[in-house]
Amino acid sequence: MKILVCITHVPDTTSRISFTNGDTEFDKSGVQYIIGPYDDYALARAVELKEQSGGSITVLNVGTAETEPTIRKALAIGADEAIRINAEPTDSLFVASEIANVAKDAGYDLILMGRESIDFNGGMVHGMVGELLGLPSVSPVMTLDIEGDTAKMTREIEGGKETIEVKLPFVAGCQEPIAEWKIPNMRGIMSARTKPLNVVEPSAGASATKLEKFEMPPAKGDVKMIDADNVEELVNLLKNEAKVI
Amino acid sequence: MSILVFVENADGQVKKTSLEAVAYAAAISEDVTALAMGNNIDQSELEGLGKYGATKVLHADDEKLNQGIIQAYATVISKAMESTGADILVLANSSLGAPVSARVAIKNDASLVSNVVALPDTSAGFKVKRSIYTGKAFANVELTKDKKILAIKKNAAEVKETGGAATVEKFAADLSDSEFDAKITNTDKATGEVLLPEAEIVVSGGRGLKGPENWGMIEELAKELGAATGCSKPVSDMEWRPHHEHVGQTGVKVSPQLYIAIGISGAIQHLAGVNSSKNIVVINKDPEAPFFKAADYGIVGDAFEVVPKLTEAIRAAK
Ligand SMILES: Cc1cc2nc3c(=O)[nH]c(=O)nc-3n(C[C@H](O)[C@H](O)[C@H](O)COP(=O)(O)OP(=O)(O)OC[C@H]3O[C@@H](n4cnc5c(N)ncnc54)[C@H](O)[C@@H]3O)c2cc1C
Fold first, then answer.
1. How far apart, in Å, are the Cα atoms of B112 and each of A6, A101, A202, B133, B224?
2. Ligand 1 centroid – CA B234 distance (Å)
């Protein structure tokens, strides 16, 4: 089985979010970058599927050279080779067009990625890639098994899940608990250094949106502490001050 | 501006998030057509969409559309956009709306923005504000294509009754079998409960509750408030609670009027899923728990003592 896993390069989940340059740029100073947590789940499942039935895993990232440590980490976790599309991503359409362009004649049986990135939380790339390639797309996928040429999966819905079957090839946006996260071991890290990382120039993919400005939410007021022996006071505040009950 | 709104239903009832989408559209334009799918939805539900501002309802009443097949829905929506001449599509940023909207965007060469939290600014171009970094910030984004799709974040738009009854028309989508390549073979859904992603009030428990056997008091408090129940990630990882209750960065993102966190430390990944809540109450025995920094109201105390008393006080105040 030939699997493509698309990964994002995003600020660590504990990063403090701030902006510079008149609130038009994300402030990267002191920020640690990681593989998007949802993408990490997709990659982990790909590694498990490969362990079960063989095949190959290609990871792909649309990004500038600074994303290469993140890509190497994906190689250390178990991908066989990597593609970096050399561009600063501008929006979901741009990323999806570049992925579709690389994937269109490559014969992947499975295109996996996270349900969304944790920076822009767009949740659109999997559907766009599916549509661009004329393949089914399913998201958010919580479990995924392959039986012959059929994928069996569960998809999260509000308050529950659906069981879905689809013939390969298809595109999935993944989330937990699809697999156990994999932490790269020393052997993985060593072998990742020599695995191929191919840099491809972008195909001048189009954008459909333009970022104008970032904004922080208004600062939070101080917390009002209430004595544990006086829960009536909390009920009173929720009723008359916050007016939520 | 002609707007099409994709309306979802659960067991024949229009979802609240879809009413939010209709109300959002009605706040932008008087020309709002709603589109509903499947044959398991009542005529009165469809006509009732008029109350929230839809002037017309298209009903694709094909039985095959009772289940939310992503590809098929995207095709029906695209055909409805074409037939109504809509330049804007509005829908809920739900587990179905989000993946469907991405396909519709490609089919229609449209600009798509998800997690929209405010009405558009059309004074120069067409700009919307969206939530990013899992609720930790916002971005103002311009939609540069002629056709535009807005996926509205849950609880971000107010449901207002502004209109009367809508006229309902059948909509024949003429779908081919290939639209149904993905088959839904089973649906497993919690029924009769308040659904977490759409809830106005959420009561959540963390590892501080020690075990699944102690969730009775959480459920009781939730019941008293008409709330949904949630939990932190370790709680669902240990299978004390089902996965779909897990709130946070990697779980469900909620934006209720009231979020009550009990025995949850307030790790940044948990906060990321709740920081768009209007009011946050934290109950934790550790006065240094980071969650207090994000809270509006806090009680330092043992959950096992505070929660039953709180439930009682709410009951008494009714
Ligand atoms: C990439 C990544 C993604 C993650 N995503 C998520 C996510 O989406 N959601 C999420 O929740 N976590 C997530 N986490 C985990 C997160 O970092 C924390 O580990 C988790 O939120 C802690 O859960 P908790 O607060 O229930 O447990 P703990 O951290 O163990 O805290 C328990 C709290 O209960 C209090 N307590 C104990 N006993 C009592 C009592 N009797 N009465 C009152 N209070 C009591 C304690 O003082 C403590 O504050 C993620 C982590 C990573 C690395």
1. 20, 20, 21, 18, 40
2. 7
